[in-house]
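In the current project phase, the collection of sequences with tokenised folds has grown. A representative record is quoted in full directly below:
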Amino acid sequence: MSFYDVMAMSFGNLWRRKLRTFLTVLGVLIGTASVVAMISLAVGMKQMMMEEYSSMGSATQIHVRSSGDMMSENGKTDVDTLLTDSNLSMFEQMEYVQSVSPSLSFDVNLEQGKYSGYATLVGVGKEVMESQKLGKGELPAAGGSSLQLLAGNTILTSFGYSLGDEYYDYYSTGELPDIDLMRQVRQVKFYDYNADNQTTDTTADVGQDTGYGDGGDASGDGAGTDADAGADEGTDTGTDAGTGADTGIGTSDVSDPEADNTVMFRVKITGILEGGPDDYSENSQNLLVDIDALKNYLIKNFGKGNVPGQPKIKGRPLKDWVYTEFVVDVDETDHVEEVTQAIQDMGFEANSNKELLESIQQSLQIVELTLGGIGMVAFLVAAIGIANTMMMSTYERTKEIGVMKVLGCNMKDIRKLFLMEAAGIGLIGGVVGLGFTFIVSAVLNSVAGSAEGINGNISVIPWWLGLTAIAFSTLMGMLAGYFPARRAMKLSPLAAIRTE
């Protein structure tokens, strides 16, 4: 018999026993849906976690910082372990390194009305700035008369205020403060640590502001000439009765860690990153600024020799800038460990997300196998159902099998007939089960999407999982029907004909 004849007879036999076929297919459907649903939950969980961790930094990126001990054996500052422009060029020439991005960071306090908050002011390169996803506003321009910033999407969650002994913020009230970062934030105070780990406190101020320093009881009547704000009514208590326009700096020495120096220059938040208050990423709590613009403003307001955080050797500033961090981008994840070790051997601190991501992937693979194993139990039950159906079919059709043999039907054709019936049950059950799982997955994702704190799909059915499920259900049907088919093939023709 031709393949078409065998297939037609197989499906014809299945159609004649509709109820039995339906119940057997139902078992395969449940087994397929169980396996696919379990694995889809594991895949969805894996994707959500990987996206969350990948948003905190690429697996091919290495974060480099200066070693905590920057003193050589003779007690002098080891310039070779500082993140300077010279070392940046050295990293760029390393094997497998595609690019190196420097950053310059300062801890920041923000004030608006009764609220105060915190963030990190980070100077980054043009490529890093352009890679950010905007939720509101526009990217900062490199030039202009003011220092333009891009705010992280979670900065408002850091704002709070004190009322008596109680402190109220987003995490205690569940509500964000009514503050427009792009229009209302006018005062930025950033803290930084110099080479001796001593704090230098500097205030960057725009608009009309009443600033209060941290110093002694002396007060300065600071009706200055701030070109940006007009009347700047400063009742700065401290030692920094500074006067001057936007580019002026006070009379106190910024190299003195105990001095409180007020500097007035203009800043402007031009945009806010994409995401809600609970969507955390690498820059969600940062204020991003063009690094060249930041360096120009620091030199403009402090002078090259007095920029906070820039170390000095024998009281003299270094020729190169000293950065807070380098982000080294490697060509492939396979080379990350090698490059990281090479950087560490140079005396720098280096780390990447590669090991963390690999550990997470291994843990999630165990989850996938566990959930898949649970679903396989239902699949094995379905396979037993197919075997039972086909075995009963051979007993019921013994006389029919004998007649086929007497008429000269090939033994292999008889085996193919029963195998194809079993494979048909597996195929139909797999296809219908997969379709049912897609519906369940869509319902789960819809319900989860409306839940707070869940971003993404908790159930994901990739194309390979769907094809594998159908192929596996068909194969399981054939395996389950093998022994009944073998029995049918070995039946004696005369004994089969005499069977009632």
Remarks:
- The chain has 13 helices and 18 strands.
- The radius of gyration is 36 Å.
- Residues 415 and 486 are 6 Å apart (CA to CA).
- Residues 70-76, 192-262 have pLDDT under 50 and may be disordered.
